[in-house]
Amino acid sequence: MNKLSVKQKNWLLTFHVAFGGIWFGTALCMIAIALSNRNTPSGDELYAVNAVMKLLDDFVIIPSATLSLITGGLLCWLTIWGFFKHYWVIVKWIATVTLIVTGTIWLGPWTNAMTAISNAERLQALQNPLYVFDQKAVLVGAIIQTSCLLVIIGISVLKPWGRRKIKKQKKQPVASNS
């Protein structure tokens, strides 16, 4: 397996940190937008706010989360960190994949539904129980996701758990049939 040079590793790490930062920063912005979306005075503004959230989700959150996962995978594969040598790497993998899956299953569809409902109903969307549920769920989900991202960033910096103790298997002598 080829390992990266120090310069290559640093470039890959830079991209990994940048994509994670973009994901985190955009998630914070979406919380601010979702909070401001609760007191929208007009139907056009309600739809515009939801359309912006959908745009950020589709064109910033999804690509940055995906690229963060890919660069993290490359760092594990092409450096001494490995995929399973350190507890902090394992926790980051599980947490990142969990955030991407929950975002894909719940947050993305809720955001899409809010946008579609507000496009069709404008201000009347605020009386639609499905819209109201999606609006609250997106806000709560975004707060949870962003908090988890902050924890992942902390784990990346602090590397709080050490290396796993992996027992090396003794090589069994090969029996010959002679």
Blueprint (SSEs and pairs):
Elements: H1 6-36, H2 43-78, H3 87-121, H4 129-158
Helix pairs in contact: 1-2, 1-4, 2-3, 3-4
Architecture overview:
The structure is a single chain. The chain has 4 helices and no strands. By secondary structure, it is mainly α. The protein has helices at residues 6-36, 43-78, 87-121, 129-158.
Provide key terms for this protein.
178 residues, mainly alpha, 74% helix, 0% strand
Structural class, please?
mainly alpha
Order of helices and strands: HHHH
Global outline = elongated
Q: What number is the mean pLDDT? A: 92
- Percent of residues in helical segments? over 70%
State Rg.
22 Å
Termini separation: 36 Å
Strand content: under 5%
The total of helices stands at 4
Find the count of extended strands (DSSP E, 2+ residues): 0
Largest sheet: none
Low-confidence stretches: none
Outline of the structure:
With 178 residues, this protein is mainly alpha-helical.
